[in-house]
Amino acid sequence: MTRAPVSLPQVALPDNQRGFLQTKRTDTWWLFPTITLIYFAIAATYLTWAAWQGEHYWYSGPGGAQYLSPIYSPVLFSDSTRAGAAPVEHSWFGEWPSWLPKLLLGFIPLTPALLILWAPGGFRLTCYYYRGAYYKAFWGDPPNCAVGEPGFRGTRFRGERSLPLVIMNIHRYFLYAVIPFIFILSYDAIISFIFIDPETGSHRFGIGVGSLVITANTVLLASYTFGCHSLRHIIGGKKDCIASSQARLTAYNCVGCFNRWHMQWAWISLFWVGFADLYIRLCSMGIWSDWRIL
Ligand code: FES
Question: I want to staple 123 with a disulfide (CB 3.0 to 4.6 A). Which of 131, 149, 174, 220 is the partner?
């Protein structure tokens, strides 16, 4: 591992007198946590709103395009009474069943997205990178290196070895749950290149802007998922010597390659999954037109 000494610009301030947000640092240490806070707040608000809509997550264009929003994939049940819902034949188990309420507690809408988002949502929430980022941005714990903490959890630092944060160790199990999503989203990406002739019903290859948006989303989510620290540990990190198996070494290097840019994949893929939903939503509502490239 490469190491490089880093010196932080500092002013004199005794360590034992450092209150909340006080620091010896004179640089803009607050900038990145602030950007993170705003970015995560906007992304979480939009994705929660979109998941609760239950409509306009499917686009069947006049040219025969078929686009499904990634936050609704896979569609387990489709409520065909809703505008812009996926066709029943595209849902895994058909029409929304009568035994499954459409409202929880009488007022909280239950949508196809809410049936499946626990897996990718939990995966993101417990990601090692995101934990470091939102502990700083939302809890100020600490806001940045060598900056005073609010001390929400008392003076004794307990880390993630006790409740409630020990629950974050569930991340590796969320990893198992989300890997199938990458294959399902890949299928959706392939479907986005198959256009149905509205007159003859025949299928033909085509490319719309939506095809590229959906495909880019799948690539970004795969790059984020396959660079997961837990996956790297499972593949080879727990071994003293990984070079004894060429296949394991190759897989480990491959995951390590994605892992090197994990923060960047995390940021870009979060933006793009929201943008892909927005693109399909606006096309489905007739506000945007999907441009057919081929
Ligand atoms: S550590 Fe970020 S996805 Fe696993």
Answer: 174
Residue 262 Cα: closest atom of ligand 1: 2
- Contacts with 264 (C-beta within 8 Å, 6 or more apart), sequence order: none
Is position 11 within any domain?
Answer: no
Atom of ligand 1 nearest to the CA of 231: 4
**276 in any annotated domain:** yes
Distant-in-sequence, close-in-space partners of 189: CB < 8 Å, separation ≥ 6: 211, 214, 215, 217, 218
- Residues forming beta bridges with residue 34, ordered by sequence position: none
* Model pLDDT for residues 155-175, shown as the tens digit of each residue: 565 677 788 888 999 999 999
Low-confidence ranges of the chain (pLDDT < 50): none
Strand intervals (E) in 65-201: 66-68, 103-104, 108-109, 194-196
Count Cβ neighbours within 10 Å for each residue of 275-293 and write b for 16 or more, e otherwise.
Answer: ebbebbbebbeeebebebe
Q: Is residue 210 part of a domain?
A: yes
CA-based end-to-end distance of the chain = 47
The torsion angles phi and psi of 93, rounded to 5 degrees, stand at -120, 20
Residue 71 and residue 277 in contact, taking contact as beta carbons nearer than 8 Å: yes
Q: Is the pTM of this model over 0.85?
A: yes
- Which single residue is written with the structure tokens 């986005």? 192
Rounded to 5 degrees, what angle do the CA atoms 45, 49, 54 make? 160
Q: Is 214 exposed, middle or buried (0-12, 13-18, 19+ CB in 10 A)?
A: buried
Q: How far apart are the CA of 128 and the centre of ligand 1, in A? A: 5
What domain range includes position 90?
Answer: 29-150+160-284
In this structure, the residues whose C-beta lies within 6 A of any atom of ligand 1 are: 127-129, 171, 228-230, 262
